[in-house]
Amino acid sequence: MTETVRDSEQQVFETNSGIPVEELYDAHALQGFDPERDLGAPGEFPFTRGPYAGMYRRRIWTRRFQVGFGSPQESNERIRYLYENGANGFVITIDLPTSYGFDSDDPIAEGEVGVTGVTLSTLEDMSALYEGFGPDRVSYALSIRPPVSSVTLAMLACVAEDKGVPFKDVIGTQQNDPFYQMSGGPLQTITQFFPLDGTLRLCIDNIEFISKHMPRLNWMVTNGYNLRETGVNAVEDGAFTLAHAFDIFRMARARGLDVNEFPRRASFFLSASMDFFEEIAKFRAMRRLYARTMRDELGATDPACLRLRFSVQTAGNTLTTQQPEVNIVRAGIEAMAAVFGGAQSIHLCSYDEGHGLPTEESSRIALRTQQVVAYETGVTRTIDPLAGSYYVEHLTNRLEQAIQTKIREIDQMGGMASAIRDGWLEQQINAARYRNQRELDSGRRTLVGVNRFTIPASEEKPVRVHRIRADEWGARRGDYLRNYRMHRDADRWNAGLSRVEEGWKANENMVPVIMNALRCQATMGEIHEAMRRAQGWRFR
Amino acid sequence: MNSPKRILLAKMGLDCHDTGIITVAQQLRENGFEVIYLGLHNSAQQVIKAAMEEDVDLVGVSFLSGQHMAQMCNLLEAMREAGMRLPVICGGVIPDDDAAELRGMGVAEVIRPGCLTADILRIVSSALEMRRE
Can you tell me the distance from the alpha carbon of B10 to that of B74, in angstroms, rounded to the nearest whole number? Predict the structure, then answer.
């Protein structure tokens, strides 16, 4: 090997978000630091050391399985196989047509049906996904946002009724993030197919329905992960995520919901990226800032409404297409950051994501990696082992301040919804994208295998990826829906959709109204169309 | 000096992963190209219409979540029908086998993740030379 470059000449002594890093930290770094006030005990205010007492000594983080492809029947088969092998928590990914509220046979869905997740167009589809068990026994985390999450929540409620499961026993998660759920810059994704105000209204409808009827169902308001994947840094990640959540909480409060009730089941989905200590500090700082803001600004007093709980996925955007096996190491290090940061649930990216959809083999390696972290390294033996470190506490303080400052900036613009609407967030994201590319081009930042330590393309091994059958899935779903529409009672169907329009205009909570429409055999796409009609809004 | 080359970039279908294409747009602009970025969710017809109206020299599209084969078939077919012979670059997460197949179908170049700006410029210049061959 010829890597004799003097590495010290190339180093940049600042974190990924630009916080300067000193040569050495000592007691001076912690002036004004009060462990009692700033750390507290695990499970106690301000939750810096973790949301729960006992943390991983009591229960290792959840290793959820991500499932979802093709039809609900195929996904259910896979889920039942995993269930029989001991898994009872699943992240259900949803295909793109469904994510936007389109039926599988909508022309816009061509080539996309079942590709990135399961397709759900009818109540029957959701029943098929729950074939073999009730929503009180297996926990599905549905990666879905409003407006669509109002329909999937209504589907879930119908399935619970059909299976005789009381609403209060229903478990799982509805993602329900109105802004960040779709990947990429949010502006166009949340305004092209449905009005933004309508999306927000449905978000709050869902929170209201869940907090009143399904106390064990999580609603995860904030998908900070997808936002981070656009390239923003840890400070922006923390600020855009929290500012957005507080915004939604204020809207829920304005609806008359109790700030000591509804946030209980709120949770966050966050990214663990490559800057190891900064990511750890980010998680600890976010937890503390959340607790302080919920108490001091939103007026919550119940500890369950002050603790930030989050699941983590390792950062897909830190992975490389070149020398892909190296990604296993990256995901492993990022998972360690999530553990030191106190995550409740972790999912690792597969090493082949730069090449295509992960295979069973690459998914298994990702799971094994976190099992090594959990069961071999001993990092779980004591809670928050980095607490009191001059550097980590200093960095946690700096992150908290920087995130707080940015949140104030957003609040002054009228909150995250305004910041998105007027294009400010999109500008921030694009600036981050260019900055990242420039740093790679100039070599200011090292990406092993891309701008340093490369090998010729001819030495790269071919990577096998998961094959998709979009044509086949699309055709089969087309047949299914044609048949479904042909055999329903047209009058009931019509009445169900008219109720959707009426309910919308009368400002009713839409979840029960949509349940009725689903029982009248209206489809996902038709219900969305009725809601658009009620708002006098069209996109095609 | 020739007048600057004009490039149309667009996302097609429902895929909304736009970090790559927006970054490429900026890289090209900073290096003397005129770039028209159409945004997300375009159909083949919308891409072709814009390419004609904007009189571009090259079309670039990008995919991340597995719809590249279906969408590229549509786009190339529609371009043939419209008699449009512009070079097309396909970027994004494209498996090895599919990249070869896309080239066979007439795609000028495939850009995959992990390219530096110099790589992008080299690929675009090479694709531009394929015009009307």
Answer: 14
Nearest Cα of chain A lies from the Cα of B49 at a distance, in angstroms, of 17
Q: Check residue A8 and give its pLDDT.
A: 53
Tell me the residues of chain B between 26 and 85 that have a Cβ less than 8 Å away from chain A. Answer: 26-27, 39-41, 64-67, 69-71, 74
Question: Is B15's Cβ below 8 Å from some Cβ in A?
Answer: yes
Is position B129 within any domain?
no
Nearest Cα to A17, choosing from A530, A350, A399, A297?
A: A399
Query: 């009426």: which residue's tokens?
Result: A502
Q: Which domain holds residue B11?
A: 6-117
Q: Which residues contact B67 (CB under 8 A, 6 or more apart)?
A: A96, A111, A112, A115, A470, B12, B13, B14, B15
For residue B130, tell me if it sits in a domain: no
- Chain A's closest residue to B63, CA to CA, is A356
CATH number of B65's domain: 3.40.50.280
What CATH number does residue A135 fall under? 3.20.20.240
Taking CB atoms and an 8 Å limit, are A185 and B70 in contact across chains?
Answer: no
The tens digit of pLDDT for each residue in A374-421 reads 999 999 999 999 999 999 999 999 999 999 999 999 999 999 999 999
Tell me how many domains chain A contains: 1
ipTM: 0.92
User: How sure is the predictor about A7, in pLDDT bands with cuts at 50, 70 and 90?
Assistant: low
Whether A474 is in a domain gets the answer no
Q: What is the DSSP letter of A107?
A: G
In a domain, residue A210? The reply is yes
**What is the count of structural domains for chain B?**
1
Give me the mean pLDDT over the B5-19 stretch: 95
Confirm whether A538 is domain-assigned: no
pLDDT per residue as tens digits for the range A211-230: 999 999 999 879 999 999 99
With a cut of 70, say whether residue A3 has pLDDT above it.
no
Domain range for A272 is: 56-455
Q: How far apart are CA A481 and CA A476, in angstroms?
A: 9
- Mutation to test the B interface, candidates A355, A427, A458, most B Cβ within 10 Å: A355
The answer to whether position B19 is within a domain reads yes
Chain B stretch 99-128, residues whose beta carbon is closer than 8 A to a beta carbon of chain A: 112-114, 116-118
